[in-house]
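Late entry, evening session. Most of the bench is empty. Finally got around to the prediction I had been postponing all week. Sequence below, unchanged from the version circulated by S.P.
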Amino acid sequence: MLDRLPERMRRVLYAAGTRADRLRDPDAVVAALDVRPGMVVGDIGPGAGHFTLRLARAVEPDGVVYALDVRRGILEDLRQAADERGITNLRTEFIPRDRLEIPEPVDLLFVSATYHHLPERTAYFARARTDLRPRGRVAILESRRQGVLARWLAIHASSPRQIEREMTDAGYRLVTTHDIVRDYWFGIFEVATA
């Protein structure tokens, strides 16, 4: 129904990205994250690994990517996909729903289309500060919950204002945003200094 309306009207009524929007240019997203060989990355809620496998390639040969999920099946599928591609630096880690458990501190926590699923996000990310290396960052790519109809139609989305408020309350500051993925908010945070 919304697809038949002019673009300008669609954005007023509903500005929330689709899965196809998020996956359109993953290389640009990974490039914006400025990951380099040797870095350690945690990908919270990696799904099928669309970004995860690219992140693993970007930190090769000495870096590690931890795929962190509450669903063992997702992790098993991702492990198989990495094996098929010869990716040896991906580690899959089952985590509880309410907190991170990462074997080592990371340079980057990446959260793509998962932020809205996390419980008590402010407390979750406040605890996650201990999982970051010095100068570690948190990158959040999340469908926007904007527009008149978004409250009802965008159940898998978050308001950028809400994300910024929750992350600030968790002890972070927004470093930058990127306008790479249509109808998605993409922000990078670092731990706020006193």
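Two things to note before I forget:
The helical segments are 7-13, 19-22, 26-32, 52-59, 72-84, 121-128, 150-153, 160-169.
Strands lie at 40-44, 64-69, 90-94, 106-112, 132-143, 172-178, 184-191.
Will write this up properly tomorrow.
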